[in-house]
Amino acid sequence: MACSSVSNSSSMNRKNNNSPLNYLALGDSYTIGESVAESERWPVQLAERLRADGIAINAPKIIATTGWRTDQLKAAIEKDDELLETYDLVSLLIGVNNQYQNRSVESFAPEFEELLQKSIELAGGNTNKVFVVSIPDYGKTPFGASKAEKIAKALNEYNRVSKEICEKYKVEYFNITPISRQADPDAKLVAEDNLHPSGEQYRQWVESFYKEVKKIAKQ
């Protein structure tokens, strides 16, 4: 309850001062934008879109590295001594490397839940300021094509679990996985490394959930 009141007070002060929103994006290669330009990363595109709509927002703080699993992201957050006490917007996209490294869904679930709890804490305890993005399906890329069916089945389970956890905490969950599955046969949705999304695919992600995030940002 105390966290909520701090969050509301912080939000009120920010609006009164017309100071920009602070946005924290947590994840892995999909959040850091492996193989695309910095301007094409989806959190950067999202912030730019909000800015174009007259919503003042700072450049996103991104805590993400290619290859990170849930436990590695958690460790990085805990070690970051430059985190603000409260963010106006927090996003989370994680889990593909747990699946790729053959970690079980059962082991993923509690680690994802801990990360979601941490995301809420970093949003000042306000679940309305947090959103989760589903894991894209890399089986639809040239890199994963030979195991496409196996990958799709595994990621469906990972996404099912993460969505259920989001529902438990009443956190917005955006399913971009269907967009990622259009990468076969649409090659323009895949980056030059034949594995990660292209800037165009990230643009489509942002387009798919922009209206909802804009509402969050304006609260």
TrEMBL record:
Example GO molecular function: hydrolase activity, acting on ester bonds
Segments crossing the lipid bilayer: none
Stored Pfam families: Lipase_GDSL_2
Database matches in Gene3D superfamilies: SGNH hydrolase (3.40.50.1110)
Stretches of the chain forming a coiled coil according to its record: none
InterPro entries noted in UniProt: SGNH_hydro, SGNH_hydro_sf
All copies of domain SGNH hydrolase-type esterase, residue ranges: 25-203
Protein name according to UniProt: SGNH hydrolase-type esterase domain-containing protein
Taxonomic source organism: Roseivirga spongicola
